[in-house]
């Protein structure tokens, strides 16, 4: 399937309403697994429906390969049935009166695919999704996860160049969602189908995607690999939306002891200070020890009090209090401390995410903190 390119895509439902999608530029490569991630109402489903041809653009254009499939300026529009894409909705939308086999080959029958080829393709995809043993059953006789596999099989049987998935796992329980994530990962590896997956679940996006487009209020906030999105969030929205427990945000100038401490620690390392608005530290990057001498050289540090210890099964969330300010750390080792004990919390320089007053990432700060970390490493090496 050729690449899919969205250029300056706009979508408004009325002249007086805010834009559902605004100034969206997106490049979806052949064979890519892209997740559109964001909160409800951010424009991700609208974007998917525009790619599918179920929504018309208000402005901009969508290009598939060398063919413009939607462009209001050129008065061009290619209907969804001619785009070679398969769409799986949140609901399974299976025919209740047809067997699983007939549901799976439904699209092939519409396309008048010869019987021998139809049976071969249906058998292959049913085996791949482990539903061949249910081929004579009806949807009501299957579990939710099995029905979701049938919905996917129906789309894969027609061999679409692009598979569009609109929150297909949200109706499943936690265990089935985990199984279906693994299934989708395997399907992508085996069929090499281009997949565009809409979700508000950050862990679905992080575990499935080769690239993630984070959206908010109709605009693209960041496009990158899962590691890019998590390790180098482009702004505070991305940093706070992705991550559980959420990132700790320290507001520069807020007046809390911890915020003042991180400000004083940053001052000699960053030079110019006026543009820094806040600093983020992810819970897993925040460590603590009972002795200040045990804090690694060059790390940001501050005295804190253990507020509470929350077991989550295999890991623990530690609540830390600093003069009424609460931050969270996580650990995979069973803590030996108790609530009320005093500790030194600390974080290495490169674990700090620095944002300006407009809430965007400060790249100069990244470089400065990297140099600070390198200096510490050099001293240790000497």
> For this structure, what is the CATH homologous superfamily of the largest domain?
P-loop containing nucleotide triphosphate hydrolases
CATH uppermost class of the largest domain: Alpha Beta
Shape: globular
Largest sheet: 6 strands, mixed
Can you walk me through this structure?
With 382 residues, the chain is an alpha+beta fold. It has two domains: 4-241, P-loop containing nucleotide triphosphate hydrolases (Rossmann fold); 248-381, OB fold (Dihydrolipoamide Acetyltransferase, E2P) (Beta Barrel), CATH 2.40.50. It is built from eleven helices and 19 strands. The strands form four sheets. Strands 7-8-9-3-10-11 form a six-stranded mixed β-sheet, with helices on both faces. A hairpin with a 2-residue loop joins strand 10 (211-216) and strand 11 (219-224). Helix 4 crosses helix 5 (144-157). The longest helix has 19 residues, at 363-381. The chain is globular. 36% of the residues are buried. Mean pLDDT is 89; it is low at 377-382. Its EC number is 3.6.3.20. This is sn-glycerol-3-phosphate import ATP-binding protein UgpC. GO terms for molecular function: ABC-type transporter activity; ATP binding; ATP hydrolysis activity. It is an enzyme of class 3 (hydrolase).
């Amino acid at each position: 399937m050729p690449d899919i390119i969205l250029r300056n895509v706009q979508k408004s439902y009325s002249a007086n309403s805010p834009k559902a999608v605004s100034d969206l530029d997106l490049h979806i490569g052949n064979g890519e697994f892209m997740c559109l991630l964001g909160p409800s109402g951010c424009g991700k489903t609208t974007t998917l429906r525009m790619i599918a041809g179920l929504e018309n653009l208000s402005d901009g254009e969508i290009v598939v390969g060398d063919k413009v499939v939607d462009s209001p300026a050129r008065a061009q529009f290619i209907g969804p049935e001619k785009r070679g894409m398969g769409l799986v909705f949140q609901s399974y939308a299976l025919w209740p009166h047809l067997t699983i086999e007939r549901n799976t080959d439904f699209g092939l029958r519409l396309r008048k695919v010869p019987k021998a080829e139809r049976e071969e393709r249906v058998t292959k995809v049913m085996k791949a999704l482990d539903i061949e043993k249910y081929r004579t059953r009806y949807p009501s006789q299957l579990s939710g996860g099995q029905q979701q596999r049938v919905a996917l099989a129906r789309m894969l049987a027609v061999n679409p160049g692009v598979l569009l998935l609109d929150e297909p796992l949200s109706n499943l329980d936690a265990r089935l969602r985990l199984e279906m994530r693994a299934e989708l990962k395997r399907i992508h590896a085996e069929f090499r189908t281009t997949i565009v997956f809409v979700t508000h679940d950050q862990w679905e996006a992080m575990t499935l995607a080769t690239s993630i487009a984070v959206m908010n209020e109709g605009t693209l906030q960041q496009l990158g690999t899962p590691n890019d999105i998590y390790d180098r969030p482009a702004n505070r929205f991305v940093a706070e939306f992705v991550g559980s427990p959420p990132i700790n945000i320290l507001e520069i100038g807020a007046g809390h002891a911890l915020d003042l401490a991180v400000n004083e620690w940053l001052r000699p390392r960053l030079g110019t200070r006026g543009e820094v608005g806040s600093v983020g530290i992810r819970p897993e990057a925040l460590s603590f020890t009972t002795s200040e001498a045990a804090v690694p050289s060059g790390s940001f540090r501050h005295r804190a009090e253990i507020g509470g210890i929350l077991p989550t099964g295999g890991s623990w969330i530690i609540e830390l209090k600093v003069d009424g300010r609460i931050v969270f750390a996580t650990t995979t080792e069973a803590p030996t401390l108790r609530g009320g004990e005093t500790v030194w919390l600390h974080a290495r320089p490169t674990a700090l995410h620095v944002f300006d007053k407009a809430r965007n990432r400060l790249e100069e700060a990244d470089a400065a903190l990297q140099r600070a970390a390198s200096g510490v490493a050099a001293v240790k090496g000497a």
